[in-house]
Amino acid sequence: MLETKLTVPFYGHVRQYHNIQSEIDTNMKRVLESGQYVLGPMLTRFEQELAYFHGTKYAIGVGNGTDALWLTFQALGIGPGDECITTTNTFFATAEAIWFTGATVVFVDSDARTNCIDPASIEAAITPRTKLLVPVHLYGQCADMKSIRKIADKHKLRVVEDNAQAICGRGDGFKIGELSDAATISFIIQKNLGTFGDGGAIVTNDQEVDRIVRKLRNHGSEKRSCHSMGYNSRLDDLHAAVLSAKLKHIAEWSEQRRTWAARYSKGLAGGKNITLPFEAPGFYHVYHLYVIETKQAKHRDSLLQFLNNAGIDAKCHYPIAIHQQDGYPWGHQARIAGSIPNSERNAACCVSLPMFPELTAEEVDYTIEKVLAWDGSAR
Ligand SMILES: Cc1ncc(COP(=O)(O)O)c(C=O)c1O
User: Fold this and answer.
1) How far is CA 316 from CA 35, 118, 165, 167, 284, in A?
2) Ligand 1 touching residue 192 (CB < 6 A)
């Protein structure tokens, strides 16, 4: 009998577009016909929808998730001499945005099971120069914000949630944006709420953060022809049109991601050479990525290759931790506080299986079958 071979893509952008094409097209046409494409009414509408969705007072659309981070850091007055604590097992932009301000990045370890920042490691890394904590809601699961808030209160620190990956996620009794100074979002196409290109936003309850970021994103201007130093980083109205249409579906898409995650976890439960993602009790993980780890680092590339050869577009997020990349720290200030074995293990062993709402059960089951086939032969 011939073996069936599917190809399983990593992203479902076009499938998603086809599913809600009329909603997106209607919104985009509205912008095109309005003649207002930058800082226009569609952006205002989307900012209101985004703030309402998060239950925050303000939402500000910017050019991308990296700008969302560093414009917020600027608004909080972070600069040279300040220390900002985060993790190395994240996308480069988290640290890069801190470095843009001239501040020092202090890397601490992540939690062994969630891979988000470990609160106990934060406490140990605090010095009189520490100003800011930047937890990353990695792979779609919120960091332990209740513990982080306690530490921030005790040491009078600011907190910015890098929420590029977990829109619609929740913690055990807290929402994103509730326990911090601000949360930043990325809308690059591959994110859970993605536009057809780049985009980002900040949600906050802090009126000053809102005012300063709005000013910074628009050439330091609050009033026509009156400027101070700023940047050009606005979310275009065409992107806002796409995002406004998609935001209406984010809850249903998050549920669908969780359904696929549960199917993966059930199907892969017997794997002897892999560790499955851990959802902290009471948390609502939105599985931006479904990341398994090989128990041995030497197995990671073999699993990835095996899946790719079987037509499954598995990937790694993020295979080289920031402090292990060539050139680190690129002339900037950085410090690793203590040892960071969990972050290093996560980077060395991670494999992301295809995960998007528009997957089919056949694609998920085929991926499970191939992971188990590799698992049975791994030495
Ligand atoms: C954790 C994290 N932080 C920041 C960013 C930066 O976002 P962007 O690519 O929109 O600049 C991303 C995604 O790309 C990310 O995954």
Assistant:
1) 42, 22, 15, 21, 23
2) no
The 10s digit of each residue's pLDDT in 162-217 is 999 999 999 999 999 999 999 999 999 999 999 999 999 999 999 999 999 999 99
Q: Closest by alpha carbon to 378, among 315, 320, 297?
A: 297
CA dist 297 and 94 (Å) reads: 25
Give the Å distance between the CA of 43 and the centre of ligand 1. Answer: 21
> How far apart are the C-alpha atoms of 240 and 89, rounded to whole Å?
30
Beta bridge partners of 184: 162, 202
Best residue among 72, 139, 161, 186 to mutate for probing ligand 1, ranked by most atoms within 8 Å of CB: 186
Structure tokens at 328: 């680190």
- Looking from the CA of residue 66, the nearest atom of ligand 1 is 11
Q: Does the beta carbon of 162 sit less than 6 angstroms from any atom of ligand 1?
A: yes
Q: Is the peptide bond before 128 cis (omega within 30 degrees of 0)?
A: no
Per residue in 17-48, pLDDT tens?
Answer: 999 999 999 999 999 999 999 999 999 999 99
Only one residue has tokens 């990835």, namely: 304
What's the gap in Å between 22 CA and the centre of ligand 1?
28
Q: CB of 322 closer than 6 A to ligand 1?
A: no
